[in-house]
Design a protein that fits this description.
Blueprint lengths: L1 H31 L6 H12 L15 H31 L4 H22 L9 H22 L3 H7 L4 H7 L5
Helix pairs in contact: 1-3, 1-5, 2-3, 3-4, 4-5
Length: 179
Amino acid sequence: MAVKRHTIRQGIVVGLIGYASVALFYSIFDFLAARGTLYTVDLLGKAVFHGLRDPGILGIPIRVDVTVIFMYNAFHLLMSLAIGLVVTGLVEYAERHPSRAPLALSTIVAGFVVTVIVVGLLSAPMRPVLPWWSIVAANASATLLAGAYLLRKRSGLWGHLFNRTPPRSLAAKSHPHAR
């Protein structure tokens, strides 16, 4: 049971890292575009919760809706936490079943691609202010930062996923005389 709690804890941290890195990316993105740091999250919130679909509105200043920003952030946080839990569950599965590590890694990569495509398609009307490259860059930064965290916390994970060598912790458990 301790392993499961450990994986859940790491999944929450991975989700928080992903959430924070995407939020920070778009805050900087909006700041550099001189739109205010909450512009993108406000538009996404209006699209998700109020059905904003008219790209013509993007050309005029719109009033910031704090409620929509809060609701979208809550939605984004919940989705990020769910993704973090799934990813760490897949990582643990790969560690316990080394022959299935390529499948777990492929599933994680496919999840990244699907996330980018879904966000891109759902935000299509906002393409003038939310370009594809920003969606890819924001999600790539989240993936890289969360992946770095997992690689630091789970010794041997890189080699395990890419070289099929078991992590030290599992190798020691399967060979009681190993040091």
